[in-house]
């Protein structure tokens, strides 16, 4: 990057740099907000309003689990679509498509009068969530040097965390005012916010890269296999997809149904999950810097088991503390796995390769809520659902310990040549020959 030496005074150069830096971070903030709309609103609101939805529509836990399955099943379909589209469309175009679909899902949920329409809304939200999340990390990080990309990815997870905090508080307030039928109002407000964020993101965020790869293979698995350590990473991602939804999809229901909590207290616990997510990414980034990626991931999976077990007695303050740790871990694991792909996949392989890993993650997500709902109906309790999640976390521990040391402990990408920022117009960085 350079200034016009014969035309631009020093003040103009400094001003331009400040403008570029400010615009870049604004774009990152919008990318984080977009992730919040697609993930926090589109995918995790159901877990907060699920008791109200069950009461209003008269659903069993199994049918309610099917709604979550529709959402994560669509996420699975979306990841496959991204793997295909990433060799044909720019990543920015895929992200924009995902935002439009996500907002459409929120609008449909706001007017849903029965479980079929709500299921369609969950499908749109899940599909859009995949189209937004998979391209977003590389779009947001390309404007930064390698040593700052972990922080940027952590900011994206913070956007999801803040959206969950907002959703939890909004749902608690709406249920107090409108009762069980107020869940539609939650989605309506989210749809309005999502529309504003989508328009701002489309207007501001830019990405200069073209197509990603024409050699990704079916579903991107050829590209995935070119990433060092792809087997343990995929195992961890798949395990995480199954275990986290067993808790988050039914946490509110567990606390209200099994532990006798009020809807306000249950929403408070979910709020703490979202609040802690804001700090989960940065905490994990620091842990990786000190202890390395293998040790940090193994510790995160082990801590998940302990925290989930601590929720079982239903004690108020210990459960709130556990919910806080849940949020930290919930944010840290996927952020770390995403960081691993950004650092170890070539630019050509990132899109289809990360999509392929997310496809396995999506399969686990699709199965998880259905299994959890069925187990809850069979046992008339959510105890065994949480125990299943705690047990699955042990698989993640072994996956983390099998990461290759070279890839797991590297703090910079395998190949990161200097590049101009993709988040702002290319003319800002144009260089005039001497």
UniProtKB/TrEMBL annotation:
Record's keyword annotation contains Transmembrane helix: yes
UniProt-listed SUPFAM superfamilies: MFS general substrate transporter
Keyword RNA-binding set for record: no
TM regions (residue ranges): 12-42, 62-84, 91-111, 117-139, 151-174, 186-205, 234-253, 265-285, 297-317, 323-342, 354-376, 382-401
Major facilitator superfamily (MFS) profile domain residues: 28-408
InterPro entries with a match to the protein in the record: MFS_4, MFS_dom, MFS_trans_sf
Keywords annotated in UniProt: Membrane, Transmembrane, Transmembrane helix
Span list, region Disordered: 409-434
One GO CC annotation: plasma membrane
Coiled coil: none
Pfam families assigned: MFS_4 (PF06779)
Any GO MF annotation of the entry: transmembrane transporter activity
UniProt xrefs under Gene3D superfamilies: MFS general substrate transporter like domains
Entries under PANTHER family matching the protein: PTHR23537, SUGAR TRANSPORTER
The protein's name in its UniProt record: Major facilitator superfamily (MFS) profile domain-containing protein
The organism's taxonomic lineage, starting at the top: unclassified sequences, metagenomes, ecological metagenomes
């Amino acid at each position: 990057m350079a200034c016009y030496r014969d035309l631009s005074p020093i003040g103009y150069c400094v001003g331009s740099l400040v403008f570029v830096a400010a615009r870049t971070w604004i774009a990152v903030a919008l990318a984080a907000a977009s992730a919040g709309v697609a993930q926090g609103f589109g995918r995790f609101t159901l877990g907060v309003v699920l008791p109200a939805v069950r009461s209003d529509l008269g659903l069993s836990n199994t049918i309610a689990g099917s709604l979550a399955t529709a959402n994560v099943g669509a996420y699975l379909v979306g990841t496959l679509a991204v793997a295909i589209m990433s060799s044909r469309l720019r990543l920015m175009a895929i992200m924009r498509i995902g935002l439009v679909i996500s907002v459409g899902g929120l609008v449909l949920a706001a007017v849903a009068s029965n479980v079929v329409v709500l299921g369609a809304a969950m499908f749109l939200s899940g599909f859009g969530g995949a189209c937004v999340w998979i391209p977003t990390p590389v779009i947001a990080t390309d404007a930064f040097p390698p040593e700052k990309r972990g922080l940027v990815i952590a900011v994206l997870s913070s956007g999801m965390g803040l959206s969950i905090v907002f959703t939890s508080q909004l749902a608690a307030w709406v249920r107090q005012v409108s009762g069980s039928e107020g869940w539609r109002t939650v989605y309506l407000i989210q749809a309005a916010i999502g529309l504003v964020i989508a328009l701002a993101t489309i207007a501001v965020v830019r990405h200069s890269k073209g197509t990603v790869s024409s050699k990704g293979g079916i579903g991107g698995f050829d590209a995935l296999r070119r990433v060092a350590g792809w087997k343990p990473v995929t195992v961890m991602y798949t395990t995480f997809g199954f275990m986290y939804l067993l808790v988050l999809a039914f946490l509110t229901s567990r606390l209200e149904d099994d532990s006798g909590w009020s809807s306000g207290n249950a929403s408070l616990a979910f709020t703490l999950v979202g609040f802690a997510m804001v700090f989960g990414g940065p905490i994990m980034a620091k842990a990786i810097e000190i202890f390395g990626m293998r040790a940090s991931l193994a510790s995160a999976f082990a801590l998940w088991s302990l925290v989930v077990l601590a929720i079982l007695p239903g004690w108020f303050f210990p459960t709130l503390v556990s919910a806080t740790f849940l949020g930290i871990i919930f944010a840290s694991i996927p952020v770390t796995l995403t960081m691993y792909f950004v650092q170890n996949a070539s630019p050509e392989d990132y899109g289809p390769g990360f999509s392929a890993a997310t496809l396995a993650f999506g399969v686990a997500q699709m199965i998880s809520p259905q299994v959890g709902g069925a187990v809850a109906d069979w046992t008339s309790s959510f105890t065994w659902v949480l125990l299943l999640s705690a047990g699955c976390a042990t698989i993640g521990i072994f996956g983390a310990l099998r990461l290759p040391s070279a890839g797991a402990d590297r703090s910079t990408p395998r190949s990161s040549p200097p590049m101009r920022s993709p988040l702002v117009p290319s003319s800002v960085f144009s260089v005039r020959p001497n």
